Amino acid sequence: MKKSFVIASVLLSGVIFAQEKKDSITTNNLDEVIINTFIKKDTDSSNKMPLKFIENPQVFSSVDKSVLENQVLFTIDDAYRNVTGLQKLWNSTGRSGDGGAFVTMRGFQTNNALRNGLVAPVTTTIDAVNLERLEVLKGPSATMFGSNVGSYGGIINRVTKKPYENFGGNVSIAGGSYNFYRAQADINAPITNDKSLMFRLNTAYTNTGTFQKKNVGNEFYAFTPSLRYKLNDKLDINVDLEMFENKAMAEQMFFYLPSLGLRSIKEVEKTYGLDYKQSYVGDDLKTKSSVRNVFGQVNYKITDHIQSSTNLSSAFSKSNGFSPYFAIGANPTNPTEFGVVRADQSTRDSKKTTFQIQQNFNFDYQFGNMRNRTVVGADYMRTKNNQMFISANFDWVPFKGGDYSNMNGNTLQDFYNNSTPTEYPILGTLDTYSAYISNVFTPTTGLNIMAAVRYESNDSKDGKLYSNDTKAYNQAAWSPKFGFTYEIIPTKFSVFGNYQNSFKSNGYYATDINGNIALSDPETANQFEGGLKMNIVHNKINATLSYYNITVKNSLLYTGEFFNNISVQTEGGKIKSEGVELEVNAYLVKGFSVIGGVSYNDAIIKEDVNEANVGTRPATAGSKWLANFNATYQFLNGNLKGFGIGVGGNYSSDNYITPTFYLPEYFILNANAFYDTKKFRIGVKVDNLTNQKYWIGYSTANAQQLVNAVGSLTYKF
């Protein structure tokens, strides 16, 4: 009752304040902004050429920064709640190489590895302070982006803010539940009098606890400057930096072993006493993570029909520190008593670097009523792993009544100093060479035919995986893509279809619990998809309905066994994933916008060395049913002009993290309110409004945040 009263008071205060203030918002301008940011889904990047939503043969989702502002969200990881068919599996662990948040789309695990179309992985929690737009391209997309940036479910691309010609910006402060507080700034300024050279700085500092450990003091720092030099109408140069510094404890992960014979995490809670709110560790078990991503782009207009884009990206991540993890296990002295096996997998001076250079030429010609658009590109990328993991089991404790503080930074370090921990390095260099061409031909108004192909060669040098030396290898493949759209009603209603291909060189993998490894052959994936697109009521409503069928051959599949927390796998598996997605973005009446959708995915293992897995759902596939929505109403005139209120939610059905053990379904409800004027913006939000207990994970069960509220105040200049 007390929590409900606080929540109601916060939202009511926003209404009262809005009634007492007036602002200078121009209704027509705001109306146009809402349509362009919430509804418009045209893109220049999804196929490396400009395509309107109605003529794009691929399913594409986007989340504009204004959506995050209204919902009072500060990270990319939280922005995922607005993408139909996307489910978060892990929050960031901060570990170099694999520490970023993991999600699943269309039955396949992936994470955010692209920035402005180039590889720029972030292995920490990704601050959204420099985000202009989040783009999600569905399905296997190796043809245009390569095999190393996503999964067969799709790719995620961050489009960052760019400098503009006028002086302006804003500063914000925010605070909320679990000792959350944050300060951020966005400052833009022209440097030269002619405004050809422009500078922009986005930066933020966040400190927060969790519902299990309020005083943990996780720290997140983002510093993202950008520079733009627009010499003339033909030459445009952009350079920006992403610098993230995190010092944080990863969320609690409970691995589950099928041999225990339990059915769900709820059974572990109710029958055996697992405490959802309990922190099972002490203090100072954090990982310090650093990310340095540099992006450069030179755009040159050769003629009215030919443009050149030269792109460069350098990405670096590093981590040091502890990373506790747990397993649900039996008491060594009493096999009938379940509890927590506490362990750690630290990183020690662990580094990963990626360098990429890419050249694209775009052609756009009109021949009478026919139009032809082409992009021709070449790409070189070097990925270098210099990672070191250290692993050890610490102890066993009961679910309730134990002394959990004795696993802390000092005791764990002493444990490592007085024992021989297992070390397993991941060392190696991969050179990737690619060339591609994509063509969209419009023989008549309303009909667009796409054909594309990529050739990619992955050249891996000698390296090391765990205790094994790895020999050099080379694997290459062709990746074709075809698609069409036909506008049944011009610019308003179209049918589309696509065939998309992808592949992956998985390299070496652990074949058994003794740590032996083998070189895998490449995986291949093929998708067939068809559906409808709608863009009606003066572009105020757009919707996509699609059916897809993806088949993956020669897949690596998990056995459920582990070598020092490394999953043992088998090769030669076959996975079929098919499903339906419906996404709708609508600006129904002035001030009222809705984004949402529903998806169903049926992923199944068709072939596996382990016959027991055939017919089951892959552990990384997530939930079959997903749904998301957010409805926002903003007053555009009258005494409440500038005030807005919104409500949103996410539903996930049961998530089987093994063939027989699942995380229960959940529905999370969120609410937000804001008041926006020319100079000030006030925002409040309450996430998990009903205080729902819910779990995410793949091969693990990770308890998520309970009800929490945040308020923010922004001054604009």
UniProtKB/TrEMBL annotation:
Pfam families cross-referenced by the UniProt entry: Plug, TonB_dep_Rec_b-barrel
Record GO cellular component, one term: cell outer membrane
KW Transmembrane helix (keyword) present: no
Topology in the lipid bilayer: Multi-pass membrane protein
InterPro entries linked to this entry: Beta-barrel_TonB, Beta-barrel_TonB_sf, Plug_dom, Plug_dom_sf, TonB-dep_rcpt-like
Keywords associated with the record: Cell outer membrane, Ion transport, Iron, Iron transport, Membrane, Receptor, Signal, TonB box, Transmembrane, Transmembrane beta strand, Transport
UniProt keyword Membrane present: yes
CDD domains: ligand_gated_channel
Domain TonB-dependent receptor plug: 55-148
Signal peptide: 1-18
Domain TonB-dependent receptor-like beta-barrel: 318-689
GO molecular function, one term: siderophore uptake transmembrane transporter activity
Cell location: Cell outer membrane
Matches recorded under PANTHER family: FERRICHROME IRON RECEPTOR-RELATED (PTHR32552), FERRICHROME OUTER MEMBRANE TRANSPORTER_PHAGE RECEPTOR (PTHR32552:SF68)
Family per similarity comment: Belongs to the TonB-dependent receptor family.
Protein name as catalogued: Iron complex outermembrane recepter protein
Organism: Chishuiella changwenlii
Lineage: Bacteria, Pseudomonadati, Bacteroidota, Flavobacteriia, Flavobacteriales
